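Before our next group meeting I need something from you. Please put the record directly below this note.
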Amino acid sequence: MINLQGVSLHRGERDLLNGADCRIFPGHKVGIIGANGCGKSTLFKLLLGQLESDAGQVDIPGGWRIAHMAQEVEASDQSALDYVLDGDRELRNLQDQLKKAETSGESDGHKLAELHERMASIDGYSGPARAAQLLDGLGFAHAEQQRPVRSFSGGWRIRLNLARALMCPADLMLLDEPTNHLDLDATLWLEQWLQRFPGTLLIISHDRDFLDAVVDGIVSFEQQKLVLYSGNYSAFERTRAERLAQQQIQYEKQQSERAHMEDFVRRFRAKASKAKQAQSRLKALDRMAQIAPAHVDSPFHFTLPSADKTSNPLIDLRETDIGYADKVVVRKVQLGIQPGRRIGLLGPNGAGKSSLIKTLAGELAPKSGERQCGEHLAIGYFAQHQLEALDGKASPLLHLQRLSPEASEQSLRDFLGGYGFIGDRVFETVAGFSGGEKARLALAILAWQKPNLLLLDEPTNHLDLEMRHALTMALAEFPGAVILVSHDRHLLANTADEFILVANGRAEPYRGDLEDYKQWLLGFNREKRREEKSVESGDNQEKPAEDKKAQRRAAAALREQLKPLTNKLKNIERQMAATEEKLQKVQGKLADEQLYMGGQQDEIARLNKEQTEYREALDLLEMEWLEISEQLEQLRGE
């Protein structure tokens, strides 16, 4: 069990934690949430032993293996695959010992046998295959896995760090913003991987849908305390809203009682007959616990003003080919953007979503076809590299003053206040800002220019949950047109009225919803892996044509042969879903702190036993599912 008791932590003049308590039980998956700068990453450093608390105690079981996701990667000539394999230190140590034992002149058969036995016990021989699967799931093509680490960009190196953390056999895994540099398909893959992770998991994340899918508890930073909630993020929102509403009622009732007592004291303190009663009222006021008013309002609230004039259409792409140099990524795009149109762009990694947005923004010239702009087109473009374009030596106020020298300082300060730049923060230089603060400033600069077309390419990277909520609300009220690429499904679902699927060299309307797209994406990735295997094995060479009737007969015979296995697979999937649901209910009960207040040892033991049984059942079902899947793949020749 992870146990924090009376933990206080100060950084400079700021109190991050003050007498905080928290207990997290083995096997639980917990999301860590709070505003940027509240101390989430610092909490991880405490758990890793990289920092010491100023007061209190932090206890973690001594034998636990801890995996964590580093935030930086040094450039090296090591291949991506080897870099990820280094995450399993025990495997690497055994590989080194085996290599030395096998290459040394002295051959000790007993020692070699022992090393091979240890390697088998940790499933070490499948290590390279497991590392390749992790890289594949996170979007690295098979050929890229042999590229040197230094050849990847910063965002892709962060993915390598994530893969390395997942490679590490761990009892406790700490992940800090794992989805920040992932697109939607990699995020969905990571969700499934983490759902199967058997250890204790702590995740710092600002992606509410991701938290909903993965965690069974939430630890919230609230007024220098750690508050533990049972359930996923949606359950946290409901519970906290109810608690704050009750707290507000209690606070208002208390204030009314205080006002009544203070009025009594004022009126009767001077009267001898009432003096004793007045003194008792004063003592009651002193004893009364101070209940803080509920701060339910977001610290961010802003609007996205639109240009006074508009055109119809704003932009029109006609038979447009999009790409770079000699490569066309998306062909024959037909897309007219009318005022008020709200489009979410979907598609796998590398399919051309960002290229399409760059073409709409005018940053990438069409390879062929036409791009026609309306007379009153005013574009607000938020690109993934937008933060690097900020002037590190300038303040938020100066950034806006450069755009509008005639605007009053007070009007600019009022505007920036909605983005969290309050008081003297408007004068601070951007160089010292966090990623989230830079992203907020970039959005503020975009909004100040009053666009009538917003082109947003992953605008939520680095934004915390409160700012994401404020952005979602502002986009819902924005009267202009919006084109959005985002891995934040909540933002997509609440902003876009329609979707365009960018895949296989085309950009076409997508009629399904995000859940349909999730299933489409899983199928697309399976097909992609199948094609890669085919290319590697040389199966892509042309084969002589076969008789069509014979092909149909063979296909029908194969379907008959596969039917019992596919039916069995579906049955196992139903059993897994039912068992997973039971497991989550048990884990929800075990996460309830009331259970550990005393006198319920038998109930705790029973729930722990059920948890173990459900996990073992899931493991067996997963093994059976994998075996049948492999049989199906062999029969299909995949």
The first strand starts at residue 2 and ends at 11. The first helix runs from residue 40 to 47. The chain is about 45% helix and 20% strand.
